[in-house]
Amino acid sequence: xxxxxxxxxxxxxxxxPVVVVVGHIDHGKTKLLDYIRKTNVMxxxxxxxxxxxxxxxxxxxxxxxxxxxxxxxxxxxHEAFSQxxxxxxxxxxxxxxxxxxxxxxxxxxxxxxGVLKNADLPFAVAINKIxxxxxxxxxxxxxxxxxxxxxxxxxxxxxxVEISAKQGTGVEDLLETIVLLAxxxxxxxxxxILAKGVVIESSLEPKRGNAATxxxxxxxxxxxEFVAAGSAVSPVRIFEDFLGNSLKEASxxxxxxxxxxxxxxxxxxxxxxxxxxxxxxxxxxxxxxxGGFFGENKKIKEVQIVSLIIVPVILKADTSGSLEALExxxxxxxxxxxxxxxxxxxxxxxxxxxxKTALSAQEAIIVSxxxxxxxxxxxxLSRGGVVFKNFDVxxxxxxxxxxxxxxxxxxxxxxxxxGKAKILKLFKKSGxxxxxxxxxxxxxxxxxxxxxxxxxxHKIGEGRIMELQQAKIKAKxxxxxxxxxxxxxxxxxxxxxxxxxxxxxxxxxxxx
Length: 512
Ligand code: GDP
Description:
Blueprint: E1 13-14, E2 18-23, H1 29-40, E3 55-61, E4 67-73, H2 79-86, E5 94-100, H3 107-119, E6 123-128, H4 137-146, E7 160-162, H5 171-185, E8 188-189, E9 196-205, E10 209-218, E11 220-222, E12 226-229, E13 232-235, E14 238-241, E15 249-251, E16 255-259, E17 270-274, H6 277-290, H7 298-306, E18 309-317, H8 320-331, E19 338-347, H9 352-360, E20 365-369, H10 375-382, E21 387-391, H11 394-408, E22 412-430, E23 433-446, E24 450-455, E25 458-470, E26 473-474, E27 477-479, E28 483-490, E29 499-508
The chain binds guanosine-5'-diphosphate.
């Protein structure tokens, strides 16, 4: 079950597995990924902060002393995972199905099992939260059996490991199990060819431009090459590993960040590398015509992906009870528009370390609930760069956080139709500039409006008004029944008989 349909080839060498974590909400997927990242990634010296780019690599030491690399997909929610899967661009080789020992099989557990079965993806079950009162592993195994998943000690083939993502219990065993499962897959790839892989995540970085996290599944990507992902092209110039270190080259199965795409490639899109820009553009142009992976839905999907914003937050509280309440409040705001990434959460006063973590993550928010603050930190915070507030009432903290998060949502732009007019005559045309005369059928024409050009009930183009006149005098507005003259800028040639639909654009603040 090799992911990449590679031709027999003597350059093939073993490829590290790519692992995805699935399961019901709140069963501990994020906690498990965080624990694995914290304990196994050799992080940057400056405070040990990894940027959230949707995937990371870890090095696992197995019991027999071998070192094994694993790439974890850390995509917000499991939608991204099924999108990647449904597109046939197979990103993961092995999965971990997380089931909370105190809750058991839930709707999204069943859904995940369906996805895993459909994709024929090998997986291990992580029975999580075994530290909790009410944890009952045998009950979980029984419920899994009812779903057709027989774990090994019930005579089946699926490995199950009891873990506590909170305390770390059993996580090493789980990782070892994953390594064994992956070894059975005999994953191989060729380091000598141009890189190929799949887009894991993409976003507009405010300061740098269109960026994408790519998972290299085969070949080697080098600085100076070009990548085409669907209809998007980027030079391989700003090229980093998941820790933000600059790279000269990278190979499978590494997640890397490339910045400089001409448009955002949606998650799940396959990418290929090329030696020249021309070749990359040619490949991208073909995708434009065929509609790529998304076919007709391309536009809609792109909008959904682009609009997902990841907001790093740091939570501090006086006690573990209030911290849990604060975490719960913060999690409430996770939605299709926005994903909260909890960089740190802990009890005790806001520390210099918290401040540094916040400062190095882009536009992080620190919410504190009755956690103290020493004078030095107060001074640091007053310099700006970090959004911070302390609260005594939990719902006030929640309201404030909501407000801060809503500020991050880009405004929605809505077209409001203001009027329609029939074109009676084209007087003059020079390039895109056209002088036309018409009559308002409905509503208004306003001097600063834009319009769609409708011919035989089909839209043939758009344009904007440069000047509005009535009786040869400059005017601000013409109303229903009025005749008018217009100087417009439109790429499509306007003719007598066309109908113009005038509109204004309103920016609407998005809410959570
Ligand atoms: P996700 O929605 O599956 O990503 O779940 P999270 O990782 O966000 O976990 C949901 C909640 O369960 C959080 O409050 C975690 O702190 C808590 N949690 C996760 N794993 C464990 C665990 O092993 N033990 C305990 N006691 N709590 C856990």
